[in-house]
Amino acid sequence: MSAPSNAIARILNPNVARYIETLSTERDPLESVLAKHANTRDFPLIGKTSGRWLELLTCMIGGKRVFEFGSGFGFSAFYFARAVGESGHVIGSDFDAHELDDFKTLYGDHPYKSRIDIQIGSAFDIFDATDGVFDVVLIDIDKEDYPQALECALPRVRKGGLIMADNVLWGGRTASEPEAGDTATPALQQFNHTLHNHPKLLTGVIPAGDGLSVSLVL
After folding, report:
1. What are the structural domains of the chain?
2. Gap between the Cα atoms of 81 and 90, Å rounded
3. Of residues 128 and 47, which shows the higher confidence score?
4. Are strands 116-120 and 89-94 parallel, antiparallel or unpaired?
């Protein structure tokens, strides 16, 4: 989930961002349904451009099993579900039960619905209770929890798999000294430093949306 609300405008020229978004032809009406629902609720989205990066990168590594630290009503899960195919599985997490209700309503009888399992509760508890190794993990929860999420995820993503995270540029705030009382920015700065210096990760940042980090597990 992206915040502050004007983060995208700060990172990328709005005209350029709109241009990039219009380049891709929409292949599934559900994509717009989900985006419109987010706009109605003023829900902070990862965005279509970042979502398509999630899909592309997951396809490139042949990803079939994905875990999301933070899912909302299933916007990012849509792109993962399309990437993993009929035999794939996307496990999501969210604290709010109404997000699961929205997910069920919005997806209806869409075929991707059966590929996605959004569970309600702490992302950490859900992750711990889920067995096995993942091809891809997305981190998109409270920013103060990013370092802990990385620590949990790394041992359980296969070699050649990906750890991705939204909001790593945080509207440009991660490039500056944190303001008094700001706990999110220091956590993200620590997270970014760890990603780029960890011996088991090869990391880059895509300046789409609010900054999407992509880390290959070595």
Report:
1. 7-217 (3.40.50.150)
2. 6
3. 128
4. parallel
